[in-house]
Design a protein that fits this description.
The structure is a homodimer. By secondary structure, chain A is of the alpha+beta class. Chain A folds into three domains: about 15-275, BirA Bifunctional Protein, domain 2, CATH 3.30.930.10; about 290-385, 3-Layer(aba) Sandwich (Rossmann fold), CATH 3.40.50.800; about 405-470, Translation Initiation Factor IF3. Chain A has 14 helices and 21 strands. Chain A has helices spanning about 15-25, 40-60, 75, 80-85, 115-125, 170-190, 235-240, 265-275, 300-315, 330-340, 350-355, 375-400, 410-420, 425-440; strands at about 30, 35-40, 65, 70-75, 90-95, 100-110, 130-140, 155-165, 195-200, 210-220, 225-230, 255-265, 290-295, 320-325, 345-350, 355-360, 365-370, 405, 420-425, 445-450, 465-470. In chain A, the strands form five sheets. A seven-stranded mixed sheet of chain A has the order 3-7-8-12-11-10-9, sandwiched between helices. The first copy, chain A, has a five-stranded mixed sheet with strand order 14-13-15-16-17, with helices on both faces. In chain A, strand 5 and strand 6 form a beta hairpin. The first copy, chain A, is globular, with a radius of gyration of 25 Å. Strand 5 (about 90-95) of chain A pairs antiparallel with strand 5 (about 90-95) of chain B.
Chain lengths: ~475, ~475
């Protein structure tokens, strides 16, 4: 389906292909301040659909949305030692406001554990107030020296969940619930992205966490992208912010907290998991526009039939859109819809229509068929289901084909660097020393998993497998 | 229905009543950095419902959501002279980031006309690209010396629409369409807040606009609150950012732009329009929880009946919630639901149930009735509709009763200051001199309207009426 010249082919230069898609599909571009991005309407519609699906899952897991301030007193960040060390190099600092120099500079939130910790301490009195399950949709700022739109930007949009629990076990269970029921489920069933869920090594852990759980996806160039993380924070933030509760025995122990986040980075993951040389391929369940009905040429009742079909599709629960811009060349519109990755395009022209037929172009398998107008509704509905599954199957196959079991650090480097894939190596064989050696080749342990693929309780379990690769 | 001691009565001290409600109904509180706020889950749920209703109306008006950066180069703001003058005193400035001093300081957006103008100039080539209709949901920062939660905060959440058009007429029509179809309609039909829509005087205009349209509501203390504004920006920003388009005649004229915003301030307006001495009163169409089914005491199948009723209500399209926290005193829960303003409370206890009845407490009229369990579903559905209308009627009546026609500046001041209401005075009588005199008593012209109540094309139309009052 690729049209020569529209995009740099993936095989020629994957990063350039990515930049090309961002521009040609009108997804996003760089903002004027270094590392910031402008998300254009077509890109934002993808994010909005992700948000809606994620928000639904987070609410189903019992968390409630709230909003905490963008500005955090600098002193708050210093209260948790590892946290401030982790984030200090990336902070943006407001020193002047309202025409004056501030007495205490404020930082623009890089994440909100500290300010939310302060309020959890106020709101939690007794065990009856636990668990406290909060989530916020917000922008955060982490200054980036090597920004890349959607993947690593100085400002990004995300949700950050923050919860407090009476016991370590309850906190651990909740961090896992979010990982599976919100993140991994959304990614598999809506984004059609198969993720490996596991635990991070000490080296890769979130600053201030005792355990970091992660969902890792493989991009079409064999690199990994971290799609969402869920952290057990132990009692670290509870100690720093004095989050305590009166328990049934009359004691006032510290609570156990968690935090978890997923961001606009998922949009980048979506592009790089499914895109091909003709542009994006949006999974039908995610697509804001699932079907576009294109009027090839006006006249002979074509416009009316097309409009009616859009209405019928919408009535049938399909997100459909009409393209009747006949003043724009048909070929150009076809290329545009391909670039934008709309799953199904129905083309209606006078000739086809005279024969009682329309043309159905499916972006995911790349097929084109003439379909009788009477059956187009059921054909298309069915195609959307089939293509959703096909996209997940294709991504899973690509990932599995590029994942190799190895037995030494050298082999792991070779797989990640030369073969551009993932290596699976026993964590007992690799260890922290091996992990340090990998880093010399810009290779990292993406996560540790159990031999059966399950998520470990911690990185100290025996017999774990390290999944190793290059990453964004 | 007021319970003594829970809230300061409105008549005693309205601002304290407002602060009390914010706390007791768990809506919001002050953040640690001056002027910032923390929106708690119950308050945020109100905002989320407003957002959803507003977003729907904005999309129906053809605008598409996008996202532009939080950080704006300081130089951008300086390009439009009035704009920079208007916003300079309120800016928060980032001077350090990533551990270094920045070469050019960046401001935290107080509004996004400038950065969006920059991109409109890139995206608009010809008349075919017009109108360009954008909207963004975002946080903005305007440093406040006298902050008040929801009403005036250093950071607030809002939507800001930005559009570009080929002609002045088209821009003017669109600014009005948003004012009526998005803002005034949402406020009347969902928030049950009657607004006066009109045009601002030169003195009260948005910095950089040629016309500012506004929706003004009267709070229960007789003061005005600006609930949403829509601006014609003329060609001011188009000139500053070089937003031009190739027209059909081959010329490249400047575009005509608009901007329009509504914010978390609406939550404050909701509280102060409908709240009474017992707490909030949420309009049924807005309420995230329209009906709470309270188990008075457990036992004898009460819990099961209550749970089934919640299920039946949800099936019937009612947003219902179960309160079966029988370990918390029933009286305390009743006071809580009243404070939170949930429109209908259904109380189920063993005694009533034995008689085949439940108690229905309606927050808005403040009535309590025993209702046979067979008819409760239809009774409640009907009550929600009736109470939505009643709330709007009550607010309209309160406002109209406190609005007086006057013929002199002195009378206008007396009405606004002594009688705590609004005065209507011919603009020809008041004029800019009279407006300046009003300001000595902290009284302002809220807006100018036509004698028939319509929105004028501009403040220069003859026979306009000035609506005058104190404001938040």
């Amino acid at each position: 389906m690729a049209k020569a010249g529209v995009l740099t082919p993936q095989a020629t230069d994957f990063p350039r292909w990515y930049q090309d898609v961002l521009g040609k599909a009108e997804l996003a571009e760089n903002g004027p301040v270094r590392g910031t991005m402008v998300i254009r309407p077509y890109g934002y519609a993808i994010w909005e659909r992700m948000q809606a699906e994620m928000d639904q899952r987070i609410k189903a897991a019992g968390a409630r949305n709230a909003y905490f301030p963008l500005f955090i007193p600098e002193s708050y960040l210093k209260r948790e030692a590892e946290h401030v060390e982790g984030f200090s190099p990336e902070l943006a600092v407001v020193t002047h406001a309202g025409g004056k120099e501030l007495e205490e500079p404020v930082v623009v939130r890089p994440t909100s554990e500290t300010v939310i910790g302060e309020f959890m301490a106020k709101w939690i009195q007794s065990y009856r107030d636990l668990p406290l399950l909060l989530n916020q949709w917000a922008n955060v700022v982490r200054w980036e020296l090597r920004p890349r739109v959607f993947l690593r930007t100085s400002e990004f949009l995300w949700q950050e969940g923050h919860t407090a629990h009476a016991t370590r076990e309850d906190a651990a269970a909740y961090a896992r619930r979010i990982l599976h029921e919100a993140y991994a489920d959304l990614m598999a069933t809506v984004l059609a992205i198969p993720v490996v869920a596991g635990v991070k090594t000490r080296r890769e852990r979130f600053a201030g966490a005792i355990t970091t759980l992660t969902c890792e996806a493989m991009m079409r160039d064999g690199k990994a992208l971290q799609m969402g993380t869920s952290h057990e924070l132990g009692q670290n933030f509870a100690r720093a912010f004095d989050i305590r509760f009166l328990d049934a025995a009359g004691e006032r122990p510290y609570a156990w907290t968690t935090s978890w986040g997923s961001s606009t980075r998922m949009v980048g993951g979506l592009i790089m998991t499914h895109g091909d040389d003709a542009g994006l391929r949006i999974p039908p369940r995610l697509a804001a526009t699932q079907v576009v009905v294109t009027v090839v040429k006006s006249g002979e009742g074509v416009g009316e039939v097309a409009a009616k079909l859009v209405g019928d599709l919408i009535t049938a629960g399909v997100r459909a859109e009409l393209d009747d811009r006949v003043d724009v060349a048909f070929g150009r519109r076809a290329v545009d819809w391909e670039l934008k990755g709309v799953p199904v395009r129905i083309e209606i022209g006078p000739r086809d229509l005279a024969a009682g037929a329309v043309t159905v172009v499916r972006r995911i398998p790349g097929t084109k068929a003439t379909v009788p107008i009477e059956t187009v509704l059921s054909d298309v509905t069915e195609a959307l289901e089939i293509d959703q599954a096909a996209l997940l199957a294709e991504a899973t196959q690509l990932r599995d084909a590029r994942t190799v079991d190895v037995a030494s650090v050298d082999e792991a480097v070779a797989v990640a660097v030369d073969d551009e894939g993932w290596a699976r190596i026993p964590w007992a064989t690799l260890g922290e020393e091996g992990e340090a050696r990998l880093s010399e080749s810009a290779v990292t342990v993406r996560c540790l998993i159990r031999p059966d693929g399950g998520v470990p309780d911690s990185e100290d379990e025996p017999d774990l497998i390290a999944v190793v690769g290059r990453s964004y």
